[in-house]
Design brief:
elongated, 70 residues, little secondary structure, single chain, two-stranded parallel sheet
């Protein structure tokens, strides 16, 4: 975060390995198990569909959230 009023980041060793501590001003507090779900077996498409196929403009930044995306 880089803010002087945030002392800790709750994380896990998958998302933020302990050797990344030097890159943070906050203290990393690692949970014993994974707090963020990561599926390393999920297949990523080899030929992603163009933006227009999703009703998005061809140019520009698109703000989005993939929470619960399946």
């Amino acid at each position: 975060m880089g803010a002087d009023f945030i002392d800790y980041i709750i994380t896990d060793s998958f998302v933020t390995p302990l050797d990344h501590q030097p890159f943070f001003s906050e203290k990393l507090v690692h949970l014993p198990d994974c707090y963020q779900v990561n599926d390393t077996k999920r297949v990523i498409a080899n030929d992603p569909r163009p933006r227009t196929a999703h009703g998005l403009p061809e140019q520009g930044f698109v703000f989005c959230s993939f929470n619960g995306f399946l």
